Amino acid sequence: MLLTLFLGGKQPPPPVTFSYRDQILTAIDGLAVNRYGTKGFSTDPLGRVSYERDGLLAKAGIDVSFYQGEIDWQAVAADGVDFALIRLGYRGYTEGGLFLDSFYKANIQGALEAGLEVGVYFFSQAITPQEGMEEAQFVLDALADCDITYPVVFDWEPITPGNGARTDGLDGQTLTQCAVSFCRTIQEGGYQPMVYFNQDQGYLTYDLTQLDQWPFWLAEYDQIPGFYYHFDFWQYTHTGTVAGIQGEVDWNLDLRPTALPEEPEE
Predict the structure, then answer these.
(1) What CATH number is associated with residue 68?
(2) Cys-Cys link to 196, which of 217, 224, 237, 247 (CB 3.0-4.6 A)?
(3) By residue range, what is the domain housing residue 49?
């Protein structure tokens, strides 16, 4: 009764819900939603996805590591690639040591010389916020002589159970604080942080309300992304191909050039 009177006789609206797999999830108040129009997405015969809104085009890019071997970056750039996200390093999942990707310098230099926009990602296995900060400082030290303009990414991925990973059983709040610590340190170092996750992590693990001050990089392998909340980069396949690289490669879109203006607060 008192609540009804306080609201001027109006009942509060029911919560917004949506389905994910076999679950009904309640939308998080205040978290921006996915406003990319489905009609703007198209897929070419090679399986490459593009997105256009009002004449504005998303940028196309790939992400790579030493697994791709030596790369002909001039050929990559000539095959419709605008940007590259390059693995700089990783933390071991059993003992927790920090390591540089053996190709990171060659890949950064080659991509820049080919005229691409370049960012980096770090494969995190942090289990405390202190380790998240340590990883970020490791990245900053390695970037000291690199001139990149694209984001520096916190990429934490779960290890299949039974492999002795020190991250087994890490809870979502602790992981979120690891990401916050990494991103704050990267931002203080003068770079744009970004957080990578798949749908499971985005819906069920991370507290996105603590991370939404930074861009999100979504991994969802489909022709049109269905993730409910807003994201800025989209990794849409891990089985793509491109000139200059032997074997398969991840393809991505940078959707920031097509972003709609923010909706005014009511």
Answers:
(1) 3.20.20.80
(2) 217
(3) 35-258
How far is CA 136 from each of CA 129, 142, 166, 180, 194, rounded to the nearest angstrom? 11, 10, 19, 11, 12
Q: Each residue of 54-97: pLDDT tens digit?
A: 999 999 999 999 999 999 999 999 999 999 999 999 999 999 99
The predicted-structure confidence for 207-232, as pLDDT tens digits, reads as follows: 999 999 999 999 999 999 999 999 99
Angle between helices 172-188 and 129-142 (to 10 degrees): 30
Q: CA-to-CA distance for 116 and 250, rounded, in angstroms?
A: 16
pLDDT score for 266: 44
CB 256 within 8 A of CB 215: yes
Asked if residue 138 is part of any domain, the answer here is yes
pTM for the model? 0.93
- Residue 237 within a domain: yes
The reply to whether 14 falls in a domain is no
Residue 265 inside a domain? The answer is no
Residue 26 backbone dihedrals phi, psi, to 5 degrees:
-95, 130
pLDDT in tens, 7-49: 556 777 889 999 999 999 999 999 999 999 999 999 999 999 9
Inform me whether the pLDDT recorded for 264 exceeds 70: no
Structural domain count, the chain: 1
Contact 17, 26 (CB under 8 A): yes
